[in-house]
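thought: fold this chain, then report.
action: predict
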Amino acid sequence: MKTIWITAITCIGIYPVLDSGAQTTEVIQVGQGYAATIEETFTVEPGGELTIDADFGSVRIETSTSNTVEVLVEKRLKEGTEDQARRAFEEVEVTTEQRGNDVHIDVDNSRWFKRARVSVAMTVQVPYTYSLDIKTAGGGIEIGNLDGEITAKTAGGSIRTGTTKGDVTAKTLGGSIRIGPTEGGVSAKTMGGNIAIGDTNGDVSAHTLGGSIRIGIADGDVLARTMGGNITVEEASGKVSAKTLGGKVRVGST
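observation:
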């Protein structure tokens, strides 16, 4: 059976590229199709950053108390032969790199017009104190509780975060956004979905063209805009600017 390899990038610079732990790749039959799973573990210290740059694929981020980044990538082909699956999986290259305490994951589809044949789901476990910079051109992003700054962008999916301690930037062209309570500020923008933001200790900016906006207690200024929904702000200690063309605005005590 042909092995699907992860390419390790050798980087020359002031930061050394560290070797990862055990790496496994397995191709199995699932129903009428096939799946290829790739697993890799990096040893890091808290305070680093995970960067994901994907042509497509969903992303789930979990946190733990261990000083490791554990990567699990699953490629799936819904139907076809084993040979067809191997060839399709080869067209989707997954590259991982560690530089210092930072880890980078790239998903590159060499034949983008056939990417609908293969789905990609990434689950990455990082230390609780870690920052994230995630970009995917097609898939949802889900992030657990985290002590770090978050940038999450997708061209086609929803974005969810748990309780966080840093600033959160979330952008999607086709999905809803739900941000849990955070000790930082929030910037959320979607072209087609609702926005829900928990309590924050910073400024809040929320924009949607096709949904409602709900914001908890904001210890800062609030800017909210929607073309087609209600806006609710429970409480804000700063200035509130809220406008909608197709709903009601309700603001609590300020």
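thought: worth noting. Residues 1-24 have pLDDT under 50 and may be disordered.
final: tokens above.
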